[in-house]
Each structure stands twice: as C-alpha cells, then as structure tokens.
Design brief:
The protein is α+β, with helices and mostly antiparallel strands. It has one domain: Alpha-Beta Plaits, CATH 3.30.70. Helix content is 30%, strand content 31%. It contains 3 helices and 4 strands; from the N terminus they run E-H-E-E-H-H-E. It has a 4-stranded antiparallel beta sheet. The longest helix has 16 residues. The protein is globular. The two termini are 14 Å apart.
C-alpha cells in the first residue's frame, strides 16, 4: 500500500494515481476511424460509477490533426495505487478491453502518483 510522508516525517494520505492511456486507432478511412473512436469513447464512458476508487474519467479525441499525435486519450484518477491495480482486473474494465480489442494500432500508457 502506498503512503506519502508528510513534512514532519509521518505518514500522510495516500497519493492520487493518474492513469493516462493514448491510442492510435485503426481505420482505413476517416469514417471508419471516427466510428472506432466513438466505440472506444462509448465503452469507456460506460465504466463511470462502476469501479470503486475510480474518481475521475475523461476521454479526449485529438483535434490537432498533427501526424504524430495519438487519436484518443483516456485520463483517469484513482484514489490509491491499490484502486488502480484493482481496476486493471475489474470485470467492467475487462469488458471494455474486450470491446475495443482490434480497434487500436498503438497504445501508450503512463501512471504516476500525485500528492
């Protein structure tokens, strides 16, 4: 279990864990890719309120159109490292992973603690 040290050297509150995932999405045409992006967005938005410790969830779609930008980003916050680890194997998350399987061509992830 994570614990953050306070300035006095004691144990403080658990840090918030930020979990960020970015994908390049499959699609032979702009329409196909847009449809796949919408499927990913809908799948993740369906997790809201269903996973303990998942305190914030955003799905963003790239508007820059820069050739090296990812298409979709998932930004989530968890109440603790334990909550983030539970999320990884939670049935609702596994359902979403199965739904979006095959819709991505690349995936990038960063998890970090704040606090």
């Amino acid at each position: 279990m994570w614990a953050a040290a306070t300035a006095a050297g004691g144990v403080g509150e658990l840090p918030i864990i930020k979990h960020i995932v970015m994908w390049d999405v499959l699609g032979r045409s702009a329409e196909e890719r847009a449809g796949n992006i919408d499927r990913i967005r809908t799948a993740f938005e369906g997790m809201r309120g269903k996973i303990p410790g998942l305190t914030h969830l955003e799905i963003g779609v790239d508007t820059s159109r820069i050739d090296y930008a990812c298409d979709v980003v998932l930004y989530t916050e968890f109440s603790s490292q334990d909550a983030c680890e539970i999320y990884a194997s939670h049935p609702e998350h596994l359902r979403v992973r199965a739904e979006i399987e095959g819709l991505r061509i690349a995936r990038h992830q960063v998890d970090y603690a704040v606090g």
